[in-house]
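1st attempt posting a full record on here, be nice pls
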Amino acid sequence: MQDKKRRAAINAHIKNDAFTRFLGAEVTIVAPGHSRASLTVTEHMTNFHGTTHGGLVFALGDLAFAAASNSRGQVAVALNVTIYFLNPSKVGDRLVAEAKECHPGGRTGLYEITVVEETTGTVIARSQDLVYRKKQWFIAPED
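the predicted structure (as tokens):
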């Protein structure tokens, strides 16, 4: 499969995520090992304090992590996530999570994810995420 067709097949596979659609999020693979996910916070995404629910912030970071770690077509699953919630966000905020591979490793890889409010650049959360790569491909590697 040509590299351009392969990249398109990987992107299509990752974008076909029911939870992403449920949240109304968008996921973009920037490059192998690097992705972005974004969404706009709605009233249904807040907690009893009126701020964005931490589970939503975690989920957005996880969408970016999943896209980055699976961006080469190999099945990758989360082993561990350590997240730090640094600032609150609110209804109407546009949140953007960016995932970057910092250690590709072999069977495991380490990623750093930053969630920011798009307009102000305020850092909402940061996480370090560890992935396990299975001996399985959802899009076959180039020969």
